[in-house]
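Z., the sequence and structure:
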Amino acid sequence: MLGSTHGTLTTDFRARVVACGEEPHASVVSLPTATRQGGLDVSGRPLHLAVPDLDRFFRPRSMAVVGASDTVGRPNTGITRQLIAWAERVGARLHPVHPARDAVFGRPCVPSVAALPEPVDLAVLLVADPLPVIEELGEAKIPFAVAFASGFAETGEAGAVAQARLAAAVERSGVRLLGPNTNLNAFEEFRDGLEGPAIALITQSGHQGRPLYALQELGIRLSHWAPTGNEADLETADFLAYFAQRPEVGAIACYVEGLKDGRSFLLAADRAARAGVPVVAVKVGRTEAGAEAAASHTGKLTGADQVVDAAMRQFGVVRVDGLDELQDTAALLARARPPRAEGVAVYSISGGTGAHFADLATAAGLALPALSPAKQDELHTWIPGYLNVANPIDNGGHPVGDHRGRKIIDAILADPSVGVLICPITGPFPPMSDRLAQDLVDAAEATDKLVCVIWGSPVGTEDAYRTTLLGSSRVATFRTFSNCVTAVKAYLDHHRFASGYRSPFDEAPRTPSPSFRKARSLMRPGQQLSEHAAKQLLRAYGIRVPREQLVTSAAGAVRAAGPVGYPVVMKASGPHLAHKTELGLVKVGLTSASQVRDAYRELTDIARFESVDLDGILVCQMIDRGVEMMVGVTHDALFGPTVTVGLGGVLVEVLHDTAVRVPPFGEKEARDMLGELRGRALLAGVRGGAPVDVDALVEVVLRVQRMALELGDDLTELDINPLVVLGRGQGAVALDALAVCR
């Protein structure tokens, strides 16, 4: 770390996504004109998020403590004492509220909220049941409140009902509530005198934020801490959007157990991406056990992890696994300048150390460019010729007694291909390690490139570490190889992302397309469409399907086969018919009228035996070349419609090789989806096969996204499988489709 980031929208969220200036106690941060006009996308989902004026929360002019106490031994007494100290630090006037006390810690105490001597910005509720107090706060027009009480959604069904009542009361009152089931982290004392951009912290579990709070001991500045708890009202997204506009915030670090509303989170992440503020997050729920534990803790939905992961990457949120990674990555992103180049140079005093780190860095996707022959010759001026200086650079022992050490470091940093210099110091070995640390610090002060040091000593009390490295605001110091690799990769990825970021919400369609009007007439509420009807839906959106006719007699099948063109495929078509092949309801490669007649009779006989409700038999063009893919739409509990692409046919069920995105997204994201597939080489052609029409595949993905946006919750599922992608310039054809209407 451096020395010295499905569903229908809830009524609550819709109520808070409003036109600028309409929300009580809210100020909307300036957005590009495109997001301030219209406000909703084609499916009625919001395009911008009202941001509460949380200045009045974190820096209130006056505050009330309801349930204040100074009785020895009572929990409320210690909390009251801490709140008094916090109020003095931020310059707020504090008013105790208690019906049975005249004074608390020598301060006049009023019996009720209505009796407060002046308007207050913040009320802290030290009561077991905050619900009866909420109405009083609303009548007093208090904008913010904090409820510490537990026993709500984190406890199960009964608690969730109690929390719903609390949330409804909060919405009626106009008060913005932090909690319930939160803690005192928002009122912690932050160290003064630390310089540089700060980290703002958001946690749903207070203890999980403690390691980041301790960063101050290493010289890292913290500006805010939002412990969101159960998020009956104020949520992670509110604080994320607020912190993104704060000038002192260099990065936002989050510990998220579950999201209240996926859409609001994405709108807040978009705001951070627009502002260029990196967001680093630990998101619980990668495993079933983690998801269950998170639900019991905060009562939140953790969401399908693949969707959460994709949504975060779409909006530049850096997802890490551990709190140590959260510390180091957020600290680096908060304080390091943008890279001048993406190449990483590794400088070590041991060939083994350099090789080990180079393996880890390369496996993570970092580029270690070989230094030019001229640069290597220059380095060999100070480094023996038998040592490798191509990259990693092995010095055989950093020079101690003269000027050569600093010259080596400066020469590496001067190479135009190098944007990051990483020096692993695997253990203290004075005086060499001391001199190396000082030379690195001095070089870092003189360059605009990133210098990272890994101090490998398990002790960490050495002066070279505690004073020299941690005393520098320009050197990023880590304790492990893996954390350094994770943080540097995130640093380079973030700046690459930020430099080319265009908000997908700016490009989201505002009005329905002509395709939408055609598609609406084809929808059948509450039904799964037949293959024939589903393909008509695809045709409405310009997605190519085979030549085919729906017939209801053997003679009709023979007549249809001629214009369709032999050989043909015949398939049963009917609602609620998903797995035709398993039932024997597909016949392929039919080359004559007699085969078509026989196939018709066999298919209808099987359908009668299996009690399948048919709307007819499809006589289809046979397409037997190309790469089989699948493209689909499903609904995620947090994010609503999602689009999936992957290998098609049976491979999708066997390999689960898929990529997912949350609409809206553009062509770049669609191409990135294909790049994430393990089987992407099939698209480029393997074993002598020709490359396929990737452009056509991307176009299908974007058209399916348009369907997801326009049809919204009315289209609960769409599965195009297989989608056969033909050779370059020949397009893609949807051979089968399943669609389910709400």
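Confidence is low (pLDDT under 50) at residues 1-38, 296-302. The longest strand covers residues 715-725.

Let me know what you think.
H.
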